[in-house]
Amino acid sequence: CILFVLLFSVIIFVIIDFCTAKVIATAFSSLYHWVDLHPLPGAFMLTFAVFVSTLAFIPGAILTVGCGLAYGMIMGLGKGVVVGTVVVFAGAALGSELSFIFGRYLMQDCVGRWLDRYPLLRAVDVTMKGKGFR
Predict the structure, then answer these.
(1) Which of 16, 86, 100, 19 is nearest to 46 (CA)?
(2) What pLDDT score does 7 carry?
(3) By the 8 A CB rule, do 92 and 54 touch?
(4) Cβ atoms 103, 111 nearer than 8 A
């Protein structure tokens, strides 16, 4: 419920901003110009943005299209799309790896307590530990 309210609030803010002050459009425009002037640091910054969005479970489709579009406009269609793809892939891969490490080692006790409440899932967990997907 809280996530829905937060997402709904962001959508309403974006709609109101689009109709009035255009703060978001100005921010994206200045970010585009900065990446245009500094393509290599911009690639690292966008990789970090994709990394953080992967950790936060934010869908990456908009960032993926944005990276491809930005670098496509800066470096040309062929080279820019390749650079945008590498930037997004690197950020998503690093974010996925860190998410796995969090889930596997840091959140193991939390998941164990959660499995204790659901015996069926505990049985699946025990089966997977012994036999995997065989």
Answers:
(1) 86
(2) 80
(3) yes
(4) yes
Nearest to 42 by CA among 21, 18, 73, 14: 73
Q: Where are the alpha helices (DSSP H) in the chain?
A: 2-19, 23-37, 39-55, 61-75, 77-101, 108-117, 119-131
| One-letter identity of residue 15 | I
pLDDT (tens digit, 9 = 90+) per residue, 74-117? 888 889 888 989 999 999 999 999 988 888 788 878 878 888 88
Q: Scan for tokens 């969005």, then name that residue.
A: 53
| Distance from C-alpha of 126 to C-alpha of 112, rounded to nearest angstrom | 11
The SS3 call for residue 92 is helix
Quote the CA–CA distance of 95 and 93 in Å, as a whole number: 5
**Better pLDDT: 46 or 103:** 46
Residues 47-79: pLDDT tens digits?
Answer: 999 999 888 888 888 788 888 888 888 888 889
Q: Which two tokens stand for residue 109?
A: 């006790």
Residue linked to tokens 């299209």: 65
Dist CA 1 CA 47 (whole Å): 30
